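Q: Predict the assembly, please.
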Amino acid sequence: MPLLALEGIRVLEVTDGIAGPYCAKMLADLGAEVMKIERLDAVSMTQRQWAGERVETSLTVEDTALFLHLNTNKKSVAVDLESADGQSLFRKLATQSSIVVESLAPGRMESLGLSYNSLKDLNPSLVMTSVTPYGQTGPYKDYQYTELTVFATGGGMHREGIPERHPLKYGGEIAQYFAGTAAASATMGASVGALMTGQGDWLDVSIMECMAGHPHQIGRRAPFAYNGELDPRREPRTSAAGGREPYAVGTFQCKDGHVSFLPLGPRMWPNIARMIGKTELMDDPRFNSPELRTDNRIELEAIFQEWLDRHTRAEVFEATNNAGIPGGPVLTPTDVMNDEHFQERGFFRELEHPEHGALSYPGVPFGFSEVDDVPGHAAPALGEHTVEALSQILGMDEAKIGSLREAGIVS
Amino acid sequence: MNSENKKRPLAGVRALELAEIWAGPYCGALLGDMGAEIVKVESIQRISRGAINPRPGSPGYPDGDPGERPWNRSANFNVLNRNKQGITLDLTSARGVEIFKELAAVSDVVFCNSAFGVMEKFGLGYEELRQVKQDLIVLFMPGYGNTGPYKGIRSMGMSIDAISGHSSLRGYPDLGLHRLSPVHHPDAVGGVTAAFAVCAAIHNRARTGKGQFIDMSQAEAFVPHLGEIFLEYGLTGQPRERRGNRHPAMAPHGAYPCRGEDAWVAISVRSEREWRELCQIIGSTQMSDDPRFKTLESRLENVDALDDAISKWTSERDHRRVADLLQAHGIPAGPVLDCDGDTYDDPHLQQRDYFQTVTHPDAGTHLLSGPMWKSASAPQPRHEPAPSLGQHNNQVLEEVLGFTSDEMQSLEQTKVIGTVPLEGSDLGGVRRVQRGN
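A: Predicted assembly structure:
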């Protein structure tokens, strides 16, 4: 009886970048055996993290951090997929795997003799997930990308920021992670189908389409489809629909930092007045209707700000919670790691890496009641599990493995 | 179930959805895309489909007309709730809870994105549900999870964005954080992550026969999307600075103005080869010879002047043309598409049949957004119209649970079920929250 949620599911990963590795990481963090198939010559973590032009101007520390994060709980098998012998090894491994996650340029797997159609003949229940910036077909399929350019094309960027300036990307590598998460959902759904029917699938996941299909994006596009309504960049205090109750919405400075609020319209007004200890405002002729509060926003916000100036993030957080207003302190990543809630849930976990030592890693986003948590180990060294894969899965003896190594097929 | 749907990977899975706003409904939409039968449980006592009496001309309705049944015509609701059946049940009544349990007994999954404790208050916590069906999969996804000091705290995408660390990394670096625009992206991450967790639990159940309670925190679903920033801090002891659109190892790297109103192109130059090619495309020997722009280091030092020079060239050109031209030379570039007409006009999405024509009985026919991925073997993920309020009461309660028409009538009379919201059931601001994301 498997003790981990995805125990016994073998996954082959042939990726670079973020979306593909993050998809496979989600499977690994639930106990799947993920074998990251790596290039023999990708020695530095930058080379293991990125391919092509991106390597030239990369950032050693950031790439190391990315690689460490994206490859927890995985195994590394170094195989030269350019060689016929390496391709044959991959095919043999694929017959004994449930899932392939790949992020090579469209058509590249096929040119290596590793297309879905050829692998499916060997293993009909195989699920292959291809995660690329623009998908396997269409005029952009060979387009190059960075987080910035694919986020822009996916529609996430145009309304971020303020009207008088250029549109903004989010912080971090958000589109790629989002697509990786979507790819993991698609992979897991298709794997359920494969388990039930014996029939696998090939999933074409495009980062651009994941962003275009993002719930907020489709939610913005719907009023356009229904009624031609546009959704441009706005002033931050222009709340939600833009119209009414635009005060106490957004991010504000307080005594020791910033806090964010999202009160839900007029029914929250009394809670806000009580929260700042000014119940008399409820009867104030300047503020006693949604229209007046909107018209006199600047005055109201000055009163609100005066309260904020006297309170810390923690005090404001407590006050919003008591008032039932969704709000929260703006935490830096360092704050998050030290936050009592994340600590009590044991979310961050320390993993030891032979080269980089003990570091605190973000953990798994959910707990399953009836299976064990995956113990967790740091990213593997290049080729750390090559021998294990060849001997235990393919039954090769030492001499055979030695000759493959000498021929430069594996390492 | 039509025959096409039988070929989808989650065919035969029934899930009960108790979900509002973004994260929960999106989880249900994705499971529905993959062929699961999603029964969305709402009530006529609490309407999260926009205002029940919006003024004519209110935003977000077909042709600006809320119509006679505005709750069935909300743009947001209808796109977020594709591929579902809709029933109503008053879960504050004993009969409503009883019926929910009868449905749970013939379902595989129950998921809910309400605040912590809501389901327990109805008497529908995991322990109660498990009594009804031993191998049920139950996922509750409050903002901060079902344990820990913040478990009872109300959240929205924006507050999760703040608490996860992302807000502190956003915005224009030269402006204070009070100028941040609201971002609710953690809703989206929560929905997609929940769909993954549910599928993993179904897969596990098929192999072990075991159900599962899944405690999911939307904040914890999002924090790993910033994972390298936490590890970078561990490696260097230096917190990440805000970057805006810029990048410490790529220049140019930004959104540049193009011809037309509020039109922009995003460009990233990753290598010296790409920089030389860009200079050639622009045809400016002045730029390639300029000592301020010779190396990555010098371009980063003079990044304002660099951006000015690029902007001067882009501002006379069309955003799609610039992107195509640069991409022809292997340089990452893309038009900054707005989520309105720009996206509909995009040739790539068009050629990939991204948009689907959807006819909703109360809202009419529109070209709406497609699913997030494509499948080679199963039929393409579908986009069935969202259910109108209580649309499938008969289908579900009569066909699945075998209720008689007398029973149905009595349920309607006692307002346990219905298709028209009761006075005062309007959640007011919720619709505005939806529109603004």
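The longest helix of chain B spans residues 185-208. Chain B has two domains: 3-224+354-436, 253-344.
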